[in-house]
Amino acid sequence: MDVLQLQTALGRYLKIKPEGSKAIATYIFVNYYGSICAKSRTLSKEPASIHDVPKWSFGVSDRMVDSDVTLVPVALFKDPFLLGANKLVVCDATRNGQPFGPNKRTACEQVMRLCADQEVQIGMEQEYTMLDTEGKPLGWPIRIHLNVPIECRGYICGVGSDRVHGRALSDAHYLACLYAGVTISGTNAEATISQWEFQVGPCEGVAIGDHMLAARYILLRCSEDFGIYVTFDPLPIEGPWTGTGCHVNVSTKATRSEGGMSAIYAAIKKLSKRVPEHLAVCDPRGGADNQRRLEKGLFCPKLDNFTWGVADRSAAVRIPRHVADVGRGYFEDRRPASNCDPYDVAKRMVETICLDQ
């Protein structure tokens, strides 16, 4: 059965209304291997807030004893797939009251609470690559696969079938996020065919991680309907192509206030003193994935040289031109990879610029 047939078949069942006031809650969480997972359950009524959603659990497949992991609901969104009263529930995962596996939300939330008075706002620019069912970038000309180089330009924000592939999935994801209540702020085609980006935020504190996790889940879920494989690998195809990142835009009450440039300069100075600590959280493998992107990918900051500049997209940290013009606002850390943990990156950033740790 092809994708169109599946969508037509599912459409019939979406018209069915649950008995009474029941609702389906889809719990979204990160498993031991760092993969986004989901499971659903029936609630007796539509939850009005996250406090109405009960904890749940899932079993770790590689152990029989003490295998239960608790799913703790932390953020509630409307379900753009099942519609109606149904919900998406972003969860923290714990075992015996402690964070499970790679889950970093608890640590991120603790740091954000310490700095609540500084009113940190974070936005993230999530890049990703669309692949076909054989694992090849969607729509790439055959000469690329024959190792015949082409110019890597003209694709960013491109229009036209010779420049863009996968727009339908990008648009579907955008609309689904808006319906769900995710703070998605934009989307665009990126610098390589089949490479796309969406932006989430600005969000205050730990909420950036919750909204990023929801947005990533929705993208992966949408990709099922289009028969497209989405990868967050920082450099999915070896060669002279643009790397795939997750640029982080950061501001505080001080940087947004009159004379905020001095606070931005102070934050950048602190970042320059903790380069290894930040590179270590740029991807789930302690920087190994991101190393491929920063060393081999085009238009990426240099791995071994921390630089910053106004409107400089080759730098580790960029101050947007309009921010420099008005003298206040935010700065952009361009180092994190596309597969970074948003909670971990946000935590490390706030530890450095707000706590000087």
From TrEMBL:
Its EC number is 6.3.1.2. It is found in: Cytoplasm. Coiled coil: none annotated. InterPro entries: Gln_synt_N_sf, Gln_synth/guanido_kin_cat_dom, Gln_synth_cat_dom, Glutamine_Synthetase. Residues 104-357 form the GS catalytic domain. Pfam families: Gln-synt_C (PF00120). One of its GO terms (cellular component) is cytoplasm. Keywords: ATP-binding, Cytoplasm, Ligase, Nucleotide-binding. The keyword Transmembrane does not apply. One of its GO terms (molecular function) is ATP binding. GO terms for biological process: glutamine biosynthetic process. Belongs to the glutamine synthetase family. PANTHER family: GLUTAMINE SYNTHETASE, GLUTAMINE SYNTHETASE 2 CYTOPLASMIC. This is glutamine synthetase.
